[in-house]
Design a protein that fits this description.
The complex is a heterodimer.
Chain A (H helix, E strand, L loop, with lengths): L4 E10 L9 E9 L3 E5 L6 H8 L7 E6 L2 E2 L5 H6 L1 E4 L11 H5 L1 H5 L4 H14 L4 H4 L9 H13 L5 E5 L7 H18 L2 E6 L2 H7 L2 E5 L5 E5 L1 H6 L4 H7 L3 H4 L15 E4 L4 H11 L4 E4 L5 E5 L16 E2 L1 E3 L5 H11 L3 E5 L5 E6 H21 L17 H9 L1
Parallel strand pairs in A: 3-8, 3-9, 6-7, 7-8, 11-12, 15-16
Antiparallel strand pairs in A: 1-2, 1-4, 4-5, 9-10, 12-13, 13-14, 16-17
Helix pairs in contact in A: 5-7
Chain B lengths: L15 H8 L1 H19 L4 H6 L2 H33 L8 H13 L2 H12 L3 H25 L3 H9 L4 H31 L12 H9 L3 H29 L6
Helix pairs in contact in B: 2-11, 4-7, 4-9, 5-7, 6-7, 7-9, 8-9, 9-11, 10-11
The chains are: A alpha/beta, B mainly alpha.
Pfam families (chain B): BPD_transp_1 (PF00528)
Subcellular location (chain B): Cell membrane; Membrane
Protein name (chain B): Permease
Chain lengths: 408, 257
C-alpha cells in the first residue's frame, strides 16, 4: 500500500510573516500513483498555496511533504521542479520563444543533446495534437488560447516527469475549448498515467477531471476528500453540500461517461447507396432515419424519408450532419452535442472516428431519471432543507428554490 | 485530437523593411544640419581666432575627446546601473530599491556644472573627474529603467520559469532580461543623450571635447565657433540616439510588441 503513495503531505502549514492566521493550516493528504487529485474550493482558500508547496515554489512553514518517497525539503528546489511538471493558466508560455524552445526548455536544462530535444519536441507536439511541422516555429501569440494551453501541457511533459501540478490549467479558455481540452487531457492521461494534482475553483471541472476530489475550506482545511461519486452522493457536511450546489443529480451528467449507458444501433448505409435503397431500408426496419457512413465506417449524416425527393440519384449532402461523441465523453458532453446539432441522437465513435453505436435522448433521459431517483430518496432522509445561501459556482440561483423545482 | 488551425504562416516576416522605414529619416536630418553649417562657415570669412578652432585637426581632436568621454561613461553606467538594477530586483534585495533610486536621483537633480565644479575641487581637474561627474549624472535613467523593466515582466512568467525547473540565473537571463530589454535600452539611450550633452561641460575643467568650441565661442564672442560646437554636439547626440534605437530594435526579442 505504501509504495502506491506518490505524494504525501503531513501536517503541512504555511504562515506568512505579518499575518495572524496561517494561509494553510495543518493539511494532511496522500495522493496515490496515477490518480488525478483535484483541489477545489472558493478563491483564496489556499488551494494554490497548498499545491505550490509540493514543488516548493512556496516553502512550507512546518510539516512534511514527500514526493516519490523523498522529503522535498531535502532536495534542491530547482532539481525537484525539473522532475515535476507544472502547468498554469494560459500555459504560461514565454512570449519571446518559439513553441519548440518553450517545450524544449526543461530538456535543454537537463543537458540533452540537440537532436534528442528536437525529437522529443516533435513527439510531444504530436501527442497534444499540434502538427510539429506547422507549429514548431510559431510564437505563442500566433496560437489560439486552446493551442497555447496544449503547448503548456507539452512543455510540462517534456522531461517525462512522474508528477504534474496543474493550476487552473483550462481556466482562461471559453467553455467549448475548455470542454475539448478536458477530454483530450483525460485521454492523454489514460496513456500516460501521471500522478496529477489539479487545482480549480470550478466544481463541475473537478467532478469531470478528478479520480478523487479534496473540497477545501478556509486555510485549506480539507472538508471532504473522496471520489466524485461519493462526494455527490454523500456530502460530508452542509458547506460541502452548498459547494456542490443544487442538482447533484444533474451534475452526475458530468460524471457518467457515455460508455456507462446503453447504446442503440443505427441502420448504417454506405454514402454511395441509392436513395431508393435508403427508402426500402427505412420501410423494412421502421427506423426514423438511416445513418450514412464512408468506407471507413465513419458516420456522416442522418437521412430520413423526408430528406429524399423523388428523382434524387445520390445521397450527397442529404440529411442532417451527425453529432459525434467519444465513449469517454461525459453524458453532459453528449447532451450538449445533441442540442448543438439539433438532433436527438449522438453517434458514438472510436478514436479513429469510426461508428460504434448511437446514444439517443431516450437513453439519456432514462439515465437522468435513475440518478434523480437516487437523489430524491436521499433527500427524503434529510430532515432539514438546505439553508438559503447562494451557490459557490453560480451565485445567481438560490439552492433551496432550485431544489424544490427539481424534486417536483 | 485535432487542432483547430490558424491561418498558416510559419515563417516570421523579415524585420528589415520595417527597420529601414523607421530608421532612415534621422541620418538625413543630421547630414542636412551638418552640411548647412559647413556651407555657412565655409562661406564666411574666418579671422585668426576662428581659424584656430575651426580646422579639421582641432575639430577631430575635440570630437574624439567628446566621444571618448561619452563612450567610457556609457560603458561604466551600463555595467554599474544594469548590474545594480538586476540586484535590486532580486527578492532578497528588493527592499533596497527605493533607497537606491533616491540616491541616483540626487546625482541627477544636482546641476551638472555645480557637480563638476564640486568634484574638481575635491579630486582636482582632469578626465577622471569629468568621468565621475558624468556617470553620477547618467546613472539614474538606466538604473530606473532596469528596475522598472524587470519588474514589469509578467510575474506569472517568472513563476512559470521557476515552476518548470529553471534556475534563478536561467530565469533572469532567459526570461526577465530579454523581456525587459526594450525598457532597459530606452534608459540607455536617454543616458547616452544626457552624456553627450553634459560632456560639453567638461570643457570647463579642461578635459576638452566639443564643449571647448562652445566655451571659446561664448568667451571670445565668435558666433561661428559657438554654432559649430552646438551643432556638432547636437548632431552627435542625435546620431548616438539613432544608433541606440537601431540596436534596440535589432535586439528586441521576437514576439514582444
Amino acid at each position: 500500500m505504501t509504495d502506491d503513495v506518490m505524494i504525501s503531505l503531513e501536517n503541512v502549514s504555511k504562515r506568512y510573516r505579518g499575518q495572524k492566521a496561517p494561509a494553510v493550516e495543518n493539511v494532511s493528504m496522500t495522493i496515490r500513483r496515477g490518480e488525478i487529485v483535484v483541489l477545489v474550493g472558493p478563491s483564496g482558500c489556499g488551494k494554490t498555496t497548498t499545491m505550490k508547496m509540493i514543488n516548493r515554489l512556496i516553502e512550507p512553514s512546518s510539516g512534511r511533504i514527500c514526493v516519490d518517497g523523498a522529503d522535498v525539503t531535502s532536495l534542491d528546489g530547482t532539481e525537484l521542479r525539473r522532475r515535476i511538471g507544472y502547468v498554469i493558466q494560459q500555459g504560461g508560455l514565454f512570449p519571446h520563444m518559439s513553441v519548440a524552445t518553450n517545450v524544449g526548455m526543461v530538456p535543454k536544462m537537463l543537458g540533452w543533446s540537440r537532436r534528442r530535444i528536437d525529437e522529443r519536441v516533435d513527439e510531444l507536439l504530436h501527442l497534444v495534437g499540434l502538427e510539429p511541422g506547422q507549429y514548431r516555429n510559431r510564437l505563442p501569440r500566433q496560437l489560439s488560447g486552446g493551442q497555447q494551453q496544449r503547448v503548456g501541457v507539452a512543455r510540462a511533459l517534456a522531461a517525462d516527469p512522474p508528477v504534474m501540478l496543474m493550476d487552473e490549467p483550462f481556466g482562461a479558455t471559453d467553455p467549448l475549448t475548455r470542454d475539448r481540452l478536458q477530454n483530450e487531457f483525460l485521454r492523454l492521461q489514460e496513456k500516460l498515467q501521471k500522478t496529477i494534482v489539479f487545482v480549480t475553483h470550478d466544481f463541475d471541472e473537478a467532478i469531470k477531471m478528478g479520480t478523487r476530489i479534496a473540497v477545501l475550506g478556509e486555510r485549506s482545511r480539507i472538508r471532504q476528500f473522496d471520489t466524485p461519486e461519493r462526494l455527490l452522493a454523500e456530502p460530508a457536511d452542509k458547506t460541502v453540500g452548498q459547494f456542490i450546489g443544487a442538482g447533484a443529480a444533474l451534475k452526475q451528467l458530468n460524471l457518467r461517461r457515455v460508455d456507462a449507458v446503453e447504446w442503440n444501433e443505427a441502420e448504417l448505409m454506405h454514402r454511395d447507396e441509392s436513395p431508393t435503397a435508403v427508402l426500402r431500408r427505412l420501410d423494412e426496419s421502421g427506423a426514423w432515419a438511416v445513418l450514412t457512413v464512408d468506407s471507413e465506417r465513419r458516420p456522416l449524416r442522418w437521412v430520413g424519408p423526408r430528406d429524399l425527393e423523388p428523382g434524387q440519384t445520390s445521397l450527397d449532402g442529404v440529411g442532417i450532419p451527425v453529432a459525434v461523441v467519444e465513449p469517454r465523453a461525459t453524458l453532459q458532453d453528449a447532451l450538449d452535442a445533441m442540442l448543438g446539432a439539433g438532433c436527438g441522437a449522438s453517434v458514438v465513435v472510436d478514436d479513429d472516428g469510426r461508428y460504434r453505436g448511437v446514444l439517443d435522448i431516450e437513453s439519456l433521459m432514462r439515465a437522468i431519471r435513475d440518478m434523480r431517483e437516487v437523489e430524491r430518496d436521499r433527500d427524503r432522509g434529510m430532515a432539514e432543507a438546505p439553508p438559503r445561501l447562494p451557490r459557490q459556482s453560480d451565485g445567481s440561483r438560490d439552492s433551496a428554490s432550485v431544489r424544490t423545482l427539481e424534486s417536483r | 485530437m485535432t487542432a483547430s488551425t490558424l491561418a498558416a504562416g510559419t515563417a516570421t516576416p523579415s524585420r528589415w523593411p520595417g527597420l529601414l522605414r523607421r530608421h532612415s529619416a534621422m541620418p538625413l536630418v543630421i547630414a542636412a544640419a551638418l552640411l548647412g553649417t559647413y556651407l555657412w562657415v565655409r562661406s564666411s570669412r574666418l579671422d585668426d581666432i576662428e581659424q584656430r578652432s575651426l580646422n579639421a585637426t582641432t575639430l577631430l581632436r575635440l570630437l574624439r575627446q567628446h566621444l571618448e568621454l561619452t563612450a567610457v561613461t556609457t560603458v561604466v553606467v551600463v555595467v554599474l546601473a544594469v548590474g545594480a538594477g538586476i540586484l535590486l530586483t532580486r527578492p532578497a534585495l528588493r527592499w533596497l530599491a527605493p533607497g537606491a533610486t533616491a540616491l541616483a536621483n540626487i546625482g541627477q537633480a544636482t546641476p551638472a556644472i555645480g557637480l563638476l565644479v564640486l568634484l574638481s575641487i575635491w579630486l582636482g581637474i582632469g578626465f577622471t573627474t569629468a568621468l565621475i561627474g558624468l556617470i553620477a549624472y547618467a546613472v539614474l535613467p538606466v538604473l530606473q529603467n532596469t528596475i522598472v523593466g524587470i519588474n514589469q515582466v509578467d510575474r506569472s512568467l517568472v513563476q512559470a520559469g521557476k515552476g518548470i525547473g529553471m534556475s534563478p540565473l536561467a530565469v533572469l537571463v532567459r526570461v526577465e532580461l530579454p523581456l525587459a530589454l526594450p525598457v532597459i535600452m530606452a534608459g540607455i539611450r536617454t543616458a547616452l543623450v544626457l552624456a553627450v550633452g553634459v560632456a560639453t561641460l567638461a570643457a570647463f575643467i579642461n578635459v576638452g571635447g566639443l564643449g571647448e568650441l562652445i566655451v571659446t565661442g561664448i568667451k571670445l564672442q565668435r558666433a561661428s565657433v559657438l554654432v559649430t560646437g552646438a551643432v556638432l554636439t547636437a548632431a552627435l547626440a542625435l546620431a548616438l540616439d539613432w544608433l541606440g534605437g537601431l540596436i534596440s530594435d535589432l535586439l528586441r526579442p521576437r514576439g514582444v510588441a
